[in-house]
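Workshop exercise sheet. Pairs work together: one partner reads the sequence aloud, the other fills in the structure field after running the prediction. Swap roles for the next sheet.
Pair: D.N. / O.F.
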Amino acid sequence: MKHRGRGVACGWYGIARTAAMDRAAVWVELDDGGTVKIATGVTEIGEGILTGLCQIAAQEMGVRPEDIVLGDNDTARVPEAAHAGATRMTYMIGNAVALGCREAFGRFRTAMAQVWGVAPDSIKAFAGQVWVEGSANQRMSMEHAVHVLKKERGIVIVGSGLFTSAHTALRPDTGEATPWQSYVFGAQVAEVEVDDDTGEVQVLGVWAAHDVGRVVNPQQVEGQIEGAVVMAVGHALMEEYVQVKGATTTPGFAKYILPTALDIPHVTSVLLTEPDPKTPLGVKGIGEPAITPTAAAIINAIYDAVGVRMTRLPATPERVMEALSKQRRSVTQPDVAPQLETMS
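Structure field:
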């Protein structure tokens, strides 16, 4: 017989370490053709950071995302961005890009204000077009504006950005410190179906609500959450690495079982977009945080469905059946040891 249950779990995850210094830097140049060059040591490992940085730079510089050129990421030639991990990429490097672009755009705005004889604050730019606010005829393309500044006035627009987390030293008397600058919070609900004849668990759905700060690209954030849920389903129900006396007995994917398309539940993502107050952009991150509550929610759902508490992962069918058998034995064969002691 199959039984359904639901479980809930919450989690939090710190980003931008402060007990040890975290930082990222970029160089920015407004180049010929109205393009923007961004030089930083960022490394794309599949999470879509390059797309996010292009969107941030385009918004700050008033150009289109396709006008952004992300340069060579060799840290021998460009500013350091530090490691790709710990849910820090958008938070650290995105803010560095924003600061660098704001410096560059500030210089561009001052230079164009001199060209048009207006106040710098009146210079606006969007999608590759530059204009004076409130003026009908003072308008040109970003490409033309760069040509005017470089060829007619000898001005090259550059900027740099450095974003550093607020370092907090360890207290010498207690060793205390603030380990992270910001935190991502989340809650998830999982619905499962448990077959008490086989111990098989099927995850039917996951509802994931996460505090992600200001969202740069909603589709990418939802994709991160969905990918995290898939990884966590494997962690909760399938993936197990076994060693015996230091030697692996899980030498390949024939025994290390991964989720397939048939195992993936429907994932409903809810994005809570309260901007982070400690950064220029207000962004946070969602790489690892979305993994954190998933397994616990699934295990709680199994308990809700069949009343057994799984205390070891993965909750394979064999382990679920073992827990169910133990539960059944405890019901049909109550402990009689105290009665025997009394009789003796």
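Discussion prompt: The chain has a mean pLDDT of 92. What would you look at next?
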